[in-house]
From TrEMBL, chain A:
Species of provenance: Paenibacillus prosopidis
Gene Ontology process terms (BP): cytochrome complex assembly
Protein name (record): Cytochrome c biogenesis protein
Tagged with keyword Metal-binding: no
Domain ResB-like stretches: 68-437
InterPro entries per record: Cyt_c_bgen_Ccs1/CcsB/ResB (IPR023494), ResB-like_domain (IPR007816)
Gene Ontology cellular-component terms listed: membrane
UniProt keyword terms in alphabetical order: Cytochrome c-type biogenesis, Membrane, Transmembrane, Transmembrane helix
Residue ranges crossing the lipid bilayer per the database entry: 70-88, 127-149, 220-238, 479-500
Subcellular location: Membrane
Entry superkingdom: Bacteria
Topology with respect to the bilayer: Multi-pass membrane protein
Automatic annotation (TrEMBL), chain B:
Compartmental location: Cell envelope
Predominant cellular place of this UniProt entry's protein: other
One Pfam match: AhpC-TSA
Recorded superkingdom: Bacteria
The keyword Transferase is annotated on this UniProt entry: no
One Gene Ontology molecular-function label: antioxidant activity
Keyword set, alphabetical order: Cytochrome c-type biogenesis, Disulfide bond, Redox-active center, Signal-anchor, Transmembrane
The protein, known as: Peroxiredoxin
A Gene Ontology term for the protein's cellular component: cell envelope
Annotated ranges, domain Thioredoxin: 30-168
GO process annotations (BP): cytochrome complex assembly
Length: 554, 169
């Protein structure tokens, strides 16, 4: 157990434990008060708020976070671990479905495997990294509170007449013999300091001049900014605060943005390339995109939103032509042009049925590639859709099959009934694409029926296809405005603390003997020139350098 | 007093932030022991079926498409397994990979399948299950967690062995 410290100053002021300079008169307290070296003026010598002689459990936690040393350790550890996260790409930088447990080992070998096993592939989302950030945040709050409150109190009730030891042990000191009326002299000097922007407080023959006290709050405003910044970043884990996903939309399609109530339609995607004469020589002959543009429409679902059986009812909320760097923006959601694919996709055809004997043409009828009507009536003919295939092929067992679910080589098998045909109907296979018609020899398969009827498309106007698909990046970051607010606070605090200095001058005249001491947190050169400049104005010439009383940074 | 308020605030905010990272780690790719995502899909008659309807039962969720030969081979095998085990409470849910109605109906008629065939729409369910290749089969224990994820086709004996194991849990 430590000795109970006597914290009462000779001026009668009761200071709290841990006080270095008497809160009232400024007299140095404690064992080193015999020295005449410059004083440690940090936080004006007041005790930190939490300094107690008998800390309990909560006080100990508080004191742990209140320590600047701990704060620095935390920051250094965070920096070092953040560096670890940059060795290999993080998991969240991969867009496609990929398996991290395989990827890292395959790509980087054993170090990659270890990297994955240690969880460094998601460093910045790991519990311990977030934990470090939380601890830094806590330390910021507690360190600041512990110092700013006592400092505020000390600065708002400063005593004008300071202890002689306090004055003589400043880093800028001046002593002089004053002739005549001391109070008059102090007033004259005060007037000169006032012209330099100081606020003057007089107490008989003692004076306190103070300037730019607000710069002392700079670091704390900076800390408030950093805390806001940290909170904003932590807030990203709130559901629906942050999104970064990708959607593919073929021309004319409407696609839901996953996990939202929004749907996007791509009315038309256009890509324009530079002409050869627009390109420098070495790029001639290559296709360089000049413009990607998606004519996009954003819809909000208003009803049947989660109903599997019914179509959702959509309401248009925004229409925008998305080009690179000009996203569609709506209520915090941003849709960026990300990529495109110019593979065309057949959506529907509008074929006609030709009676080859009479030359009569029936139709056209609507035949979408997916979910077509099952029956089409065309004059005397009836087509019943028997089967359809997206990517037609003949399987190993000789039966027709499909190789995928995308309309790459679509085929339709109809049962055709009509004049001169079997009453039960005759099968007819139809390939909308000419290449498939040839490849699978449509006419041979259809046999005799191929001589009686033909299903064909007349002209491109009867073909409905998507020329391209657009890839959009969907982003949402509700935390961003708060990040900016935090950054602004932080910057304002930095500027306040960096470009202004808190300067104070204390002086007192005792029986014709002037004692002047001055303190600033930085720019001692300016401090001394303020003191010397004002002295010059009342007729005392002194070399500013001679005011230097030693001490670091002085 | 201020100390306690601030430390409590730190506990709440920090606890939430750290907690959500631990929770997010749980949300990664599905694996044995994790909870399969919920779905609500229509069967061939247009009745909505959801996974939670089968709580407390052994469920086999199989993703299939007519364009995938091993899936096609498996479907009649699942039918035989279904007939073999249905009285013991086995549930088979075969989710079609967003193909069109005619294709699915023709297929089911051809193989005469009796277990529920569910229709995924626009690949939503398949995405929520993080499917990478077909077929993929999830064996879900009566307690609602995944016993095994089998990517790729299985022989009938392999299906049988897994179902037997599943029903013993």
């Amino acid at each position: 157990m430590l000795l109970v410290e006597n914290t009462k100053c000779e001026c009668g002021h009761q200071n709290s434990v841990g006080t270095v300079l008497c809160e009232s008169c400024g007299k140095p307290l404690g064992y080193n008060d015999e020295s005449d070296l410059p004083l440690e003026m940090r936080y004006d010598g007041v005790a930190r708020r939490s300094q107690k002689s008998n800390p309990n459990f909560i006080d100990r936690i508080w004191n742990f976070f209140s320590s600047v040393k701990i704060a620095i350790y935390l920051i250094v550890i965070t920096f070092l671990t953040a560096m670890l996260g940059t060795i290999y790409p993080q998991e969240n930088t991969f867009i496609n479905n990929f398996d991290p447990s395989v990827y890292y080992e395959e790509t980087y070998g054993l170090p990659g495997k270890l990297y994955y096993l240690l969880g460094l592939t998601h460093t910045y989302e790991s519990w311990w990294f977030i934990g470090l950030l939380v601890m830094i945040g806590t330390s910021l709050v507690i360190c600041s509170l512990d110092r700013v409150l006592p400092l505020y109190r000390a600065l708002s009730k400063q005593q004008v007449r300071k202890h002689l030891q306090f004055i003589h042990r400043q880093k800028t000191v001046f002593r002089h013999k004053v002739e005549g009326d001391a109070e008059q002299w102090v007033e004259n000097y005060g007037a000169q300091l006032k012209r330099k922007g100081y606020r003057i407080h007089l107490d008989g023959s003692a004076l306190l001049a103070e300037k730019n006290r607000f710069s002392r709050w700079g670091p704390y405003i900076n800390h408030i900014g950093l805390i806001l910044f940290l909170l904003a970043i932590l807030a990203r884990s709130i559901p629906s605060w942050q999104m970064d996903s990708y959607i593919t939309i073929p021309d004319g399609d409407t696609v839901q943005i996953a996990d939202t109530n929004y749907y996007v339609k791509n009315e038309k995607f256009t890509v324009e390339y530079y002409k050869d004469e627009e390109l420098p020589d070495k790029l001639k002959g290559t296709s360089r995109a000049k413009l990607f543009e998606t004519k996009a429409v954003l819809y909000e679902c208003v009803s049947n939103c989660n109903d599997q059986l019914q179509k959702p009812v959509l309401r248009e909320v925004k229409r925008h032509n998305i080009v690179v760097n000009e996203p569609l923006k709506y209520k915090g959601i941003k849709l960026y042009q990300f990529d495109f694919d110019t593979t065309p996709r057949l959506n529907a055809v509008h074929p006609v049925l030709v009676d080859k004997q009479t030359g009569q043409v029936y139709g056209p009828f609507d035949l979408p590639m997916k979910d077509s009507a099952l029956q089409h009536k065309l004059g005397p003919y009836t087509l019943d859709l028997y089967a359809n295939y997206m990517e037609f092929d003949i399987g190993d067992n000789g039966e027709p099959t499909t190789l995928s679910r995308d309309p790459i080589a679509p085929a339709f098998i109809f049962t055709v009934k009509g004049p001169g045909l079997d009453a039960k109907g005759e099968p007819y296979i139809y390939f909308p694409m000419q290449k498939d018609k040839v490849k699978f020899s449509q006419d041979t398969i259809n046999g005799a029926l191929a001589n009686k009827i033909e299903i064909r498309v007349d002209g491109m106007e009867n073909v409905d296809f998507s020329e391209a698909s657009t890839y959009l990046n969907v982003r949402m970051d509700k935390a961003l405005p708060y990040v900016w607010i935090g950054a602004t606070f932080s910057m304002v605090g930095l500027l306040m603390g960096s470009y202004w200095q808190h300067r104070r001058i204390w002086l007192r005249v005792d029986e014709g003997e002037l004692s002047l001491g001055a303190h600033t947190n930085k720019n001692w050169y300016g401090m001394r020139s303020d003191v010397a400049g004002a002295l010059q104005k009342i007729g005392i010439t002194v070399d500013p350098k001679s005011l230097d009383n030693g001490g670091n940074n002085a | 007093m201020v100390q306690i308020v601030i430390l409590i605030a730190v506990l709440i905010i920090g606890g939430y932030a750290i907690g959500s990272t631990l929770f997010a780690a749980d949300k990664g790719p599905l694996k044995e022991g994790s909870e399969p995502p919920q779905f609500k899909l229509a069967d061939l008659d247009g009745n909505l079926k959801q996974l939670s309807d089968y709580e407390g039962k052994a469920v086999v969720v199989n993703f299939w498409g007519t364009f995938c030969p091993p899936c096609v081979k498996e479907m009649p095998e699942f039918e035989r397994q279904y007939q073999k085990w249905k009285d013991e409470g086995l549930v088979i849910l075969a989710i079609n990979l967003s193909e069109d109605t005619l294709t699915v109906n023709n297929f089911v008629r051809r193989f005469d399948l009796h277990y529920p065939i569910l229709r995924d729409v626009n690949r939503k369910t398949e995405r929520s299950y993080g499917l990478k290749s077909y077929p993929t089969t999830f064996f879900i224990k009566p307690d609602g967690s995944i016993m095994e994820i089998k990517v790729g086709g299985m022989t009938e004996a392999e299906i049988d062995e897994r179902i037997e194991r599943l029903l013993q849990l």
